[in-house]
Specification:
The protein is 48% helix and 17% strand. It is built from eleven helices and eight strands. Strands 1-2-3-4-5-6-7-8 form an eight-stranded parallel β-barrel, surrounded by seven helices. Strand 2, helix 3 and strand 3 form a beta-alpha-beta unit. Helix 7 (138-146) packs parallel to helix 9 (169-184). The chain starts with a strand and ends with a helix. The structure holds pyridoxine-5'-phosphate (PXP).
């Protein structure tokens, strides 16, 4: 069986922390825990509006070096500077709209080819593994390859929405084809967005996909799974 790497997106640990503007839950504590339980990497998305991950988090997590850090970011000058300053293990270029709740679709690499052709080289030269977050579309993947990207991450958001309606088979085929095409060009294929206990298996069983990045579901489900233990502990503390 192939080994598939798992990257955990901890943006929403930061969302919870920011709700009180204190340092709990603490991202470094979470990073240590993820290392202990053999996760392969940590993913964070530094958004323009800093709604969850903040600049200090990028700095602390890249210095702490518990696990390879994958920095998701928009292709802006500001983000490029931050990336070059902190030199994460990896960076993933994503499209970003201020008003969106999450990254809604893949990057239009074709439309931004000239811009990305100037934007990517300093990051690639620094040896930062660079991936582009794209829809399962061979034209976009080909354009990513021509720009020298090391990998693409396939956006599985549409697949996960269709999975709920049991209408996902053609999107899954599209993802399989995209992953095979990506490998044929010599690039790694990753995938992520909207993955859950229920819908992850068909994606994980695609031989050409070597890394998954999962966030919202894992952090959300941790509340359900963890609640019993935490309440038990607080009851013990109350008794004391
Ligand atoms: N991969 C990329 C590039 C993303 O932008 C996101 C969302 O931040 C994810 C993976 C994880 O998506 P989710 O939080 O839905 O698991």
């Amino acid at each position: 069986m192939k080994k598939i790497r798992l990257g955990i997106n901890i943006d929403h640990v930061a969302t919870l922390r920011n709700a009180r503007n204190e340092n709990f839950p603490n991202l470094i504590t979470v990073a240590k825990l993820l290392k202990k339980i053999n996760v392969d990497s940590i993913t964070i998305h530094l958004r323009e509006d800093r709604r969850h991950i903040r600049d200090k988090d990028v700095s602390e997590l890249s210095k702490s070096n518990f696990l390879p850090l994958n920095l998701e970011m928009a292709a802006t000058e500001e983000m490029q500077k931050i990336c070059l300053k902190h030199k994460p293990f990896a960076c993933c270029i994503v499209p970003e709209r201020r008003e969106e709740l999450t990254t809604e679709g893949g990057l239009n690499v074709l439309a931004q080819r000239d811009y990305l052709n100037k934007f990517l080289p300093p990051i690639l030269k620094m040896g930062i593994r660079t991936s582009l977050f794209v829809d399962p579309c061979t034209k976009q993947i080909k354009a990513a390859h021509e720009l020298g990207a090391n990998a693409v991450e396939i956006h599985t958001g549409k697949y996960s929405r269709l999975f709920k309606k049991k209408q996902f088979s053609s999107e899954l085929d599209q993802i399989k084809k995209a992953a095979i095409f990506c490998n044929s060009l010599g690039m790694e294929c990753h995938a992520g967005h909207g993955l859950t206990f229920k819908n992850v298996s068909p994606i994980a069983s695609i031989q050409n996909i070597v890394e998954l990045n999962i966030g919202h579901f894992i952090i959300g489900e941790s509340i359900s799974i963890g609640l019993k233990n935490v309440i038990k502990k607080i009851k013990n503390s109350i008794k004391k």
